[in-house]
Amino acid sequence: MKVSPHDLHWDRFRENPDDRAAFEMLEEHLFMEASWSSLADLYQRRQKASSLAERPRARAELAMRLGQLYEDRIADSDAAITAYTEAFRLDPTLRRALRNLRRIYSRRKSWEAVLQIGEQEAVTASSGDERARIYAEMGDIWERELGDREQAEELYARARVESGGGASPDPQQSAGNTSESGESLVQAAWLAAARGDTVAALSELERALEADPTNIEALDMMLTVLEGAERHRDMAPLLERRAALASDAETRSAVLLRLGEILEQIGDGEDARDAYERALSAHPDHVGAHSALLRVYRESEAWSPLRSMLESAAESSDGPARVELLYELAGVAADELDDPDAARDFLDQALALAPDDPRLQSAHGQLDTEDVALTMPEWDTARDVGEQRSTRIVGVLERKLASRVEDGRGLAPPAIALRLRIAELRSGPLGDPASAVAVLTPAANEPAALHEIAPMLAGLYEQLGRTEPLIALAEAAADACEDPTPRVFWRRRAVDAARALGESERAIASLQKLLEDRPEDRSAQDALVALHRTRGETEPLVDLLREQLVRSSGEREGELHHELATLFRETLDDPAGALPHLRRCIALSPEHDDLLDEALASSAALGGPLAQLDLLDDAADRARDDVARARFLARRGALLADELAWPDEARVSWRAALDLDPEQPLALERLGA
């Protein structure tokens, strides 16, 4: 009796659960055959393999697969609970296990268990924003399901603390809006954005934010999509929301800084100034906010608040930096505020630090003898006052920077602040983004400074259309990030730029690194598949599709099986490899004749009409209803009559088809003939 390869692999695996090759072959075969109980047995045996005894994370992943199998395919929620609990016991960092447990207990309305799991989930959360979401959902349960408003308010307060003081969560928000649904919507949006469909991307993100208004990833991506579409006016309210959800002062300040920049772009100067002031208030040491607010005060001629900021900066500075600030203060006091006494005081303080500075001596002499404004002659004839002022400021700042470069401190934090201020003025009021790039570029090679200058430098590269240096900058910024959230942001930016330039290899490398941080990121997986597909790289494409297949079901499962079958049949010239995938496609979509035709062609290549007959018999046995089974029996009859010349057997098959579906057209036609 002939032994099938499947049985041989079972024999090998039963003898040795450490046989990884046999395990993987059996896993794929059983999944495609929908043999769920056998697949569960396979996972349980694999967990006992001696090679995994010291690898709890590997056993935890098997427990997760087992739990998903029990939950989604076998519908045994008790067994799923046991598996997910074991997964979390083996790997306490596996938050997916807790989420799945909370989902099952929510369906059962076992609220005490849900709340206990929620507390554990909050303890293991990777960020304050994630904890805030969990606390908000627990508050919903206390209020809506248990009727305890006081306990709910306590949890909402904890959520506000974790999210950085944002608004109270909406108690009417559905607890069913799980992170999994939000993640899938964000992933769909990312894929739509990658193919240039902004409308679809925004639609998916709006749905994600309706389900969970605190979904940071959806909010950040919506801002990215809107910015790419140059819909700056729509970004302003979203940036306000993002600032409210920020979990730390530095992030809140950075978001408010971006809000100010957007408001300036759309011509709302007063609100931009307010945003910059709030950014500096949130994080007084944020260099970008400090520089932006100084620029706005200068450009709007808000001399009094500018003087206050400069005085505060001078008090906290020393050496040459303090001298330069005092010199600028003297100019503001004399030229703009008509306060020569204050100007003399600032110059006296500066001269005490730098008595030989000729600029200070000259300015002091002018005040003492003529009481004239502190100006520099070559600027007096400038036609544009705003450009005149910006040119003057840039000159002062560049002299400061040159001094620091000469001292070997050109990349120290104070010098980075100077570079940012110079770049802002050169790219903005002076309209020279290329020189702004030249000022910032030296700092791009200093990892400690990179995170400060990367956002502005990336924007300048985009403005100038310099895609190649943008890719290199995004890759370097990602490598320099310790926090995975900004690291993923820069990886995505590197991917987008690389794909725009046609640098598919670099895009693939960035996506692979992104998936190291987020292995379940569907959008990154799909983008990687698309790149390998475009490049015609079959083997990595097959591996990626198989990985996705394990987590897929329904229509998506059918699409993956069909693509794998096409790759095996047309690219790899392997009809034997294509056939199991086509069989599964037929089981999922028996109404599609084209799938059956492809499967019959592969069967014919392997074993001729008899192999085709075996395929049709198998399809009829697996058919989900009588109509589908009748279609397969009718095709079987046609094969018996036309290819094998067995007319009697053909008529039996057609009659069996009509017994199941009296309207079966092929059987009626052939018996009538």
Question: Can you put this structure into words, describing what you see?
Answer:
The chain has helices spanning 5-15, 20-32, 36-47, 56-74, 77-90, 95-107, 111-124, 128-145, 149-162, 179-194, 198-211, 216-228, 232-245, 249-265, 269-282, 287-299, 303-315, 319-336, 340-353, 358-369, 377-380, 385-406, 413-427, 433-440, 447-464, 467-480, 484-501, 504-517, 522-535, 538-550, 554-571, 575-588, 593-622, 626-642, 647-660, 665-672. Helix content is 78%, strand content 0%.
Task: Identify the notable features of this structure and list them briefly.
about 675 residues, about 0% strand, elongated, 36 helices, about 80% helix, mainly alpha
Rg (CA only):
34 Å
User: What class would the helix/strand composition place it in?
Assistant: mainly alpha
Q: State the distance separating the first and last CA atoms.
A: 41 Å
Shape: elongated
> Strand tally, please?
0
Helix content: over 70%
The share of residues in extended strands comes to under 5%
Mean pLDDT: 78
Number of helices: 36
- Unreliable stretches (pLDDT < 50, length at least 5) are 165-180, 369-385
User: Major sheet: size, sense and barrel closure?
Assistant: none
